[in-house]
Amino acid sequence: MIILGLTGSIGMGKSTTAQMFRDAGVPVHDSDEAVHRLYAGAAAPLIEARFPGTVDNGVVDREKLSKQVLGQPEALRDLERIIHPLVRADADAFLQASRTAGAAFAVMDIPLLFETQGEGRVDKIAVVSAPEAVQRARVLARPGMTSEKLEAILARQVPDAEKRARADFIIDTGSGLDTARRDVQAIITQLTMDRLV
């Protein structure tokens, strides 16, 4: 089974692109969705122990956690030490289930693939990309997002140009959904051919 890592900086359209793979029948593991589940499960008591007051009724309050972590490199590292192993275990279980089901390939939607040195966990990498102006407009339209928050997030991410240079495939989300869908279909076709070789 070929494992395709899907990544891209904030606001590049990765979630929409991941759904295009799902719509085409490809199994997709979404790291962000796994974090949401873990924040309401196994991660909650571990996060509350390190960041007191961030869990309400057994669920991590992302806003409260953000206040304790944003701009605090050591706190962020502590949070990553808690959550990354749990997400990895969740992903491993997904991959095993996909193999058992006989999937030809599976997509691992990993927002910080390059930032967490995750290249070794996948066979190929697809980067979702759009022009900077499109990216900024998308992100700043999100509730509660500010230019300062966006700059802090971007400072922690590998630049888009470097991601594109390190990718096996680039999915253009700045030219509309049809273009992105064509890019996704081309990747599916290529991976299907690669598996047959």
Automatic annotation (TrEMBL):
Pathway: Cofactor biosynthesis; coenzyme A biosynthesis; CoA from (R)-pantothenate: step 5/5
Function according to Swiss-Prot or TrEMBL: Catalyzes the phosphorylation of the 3'-hydroxyl group of dephosphocoenzyme A to form coenzyme A.
Location(s), subcellular: Cytoplasm
Catalytic activity, as annotated: 3'-dephospho-CoA + ATP = ADP + CoA + H(+)
Name the record gives this protein: Dephospho-CoA kinase
Gene assigned in the entry: coaE
Molecular-function annotations in GO: ATP binding; dephospho-CoA kinase activity
Protein's GO biological process: coenzyme A biosynthetic process
EC number: 2.7.1.24
Residues that, per the record, bind ATP: G11, M12, G13, K14, S15, T16
Lineage top rank: taxon: Bacteria
Enzyme class: transferase
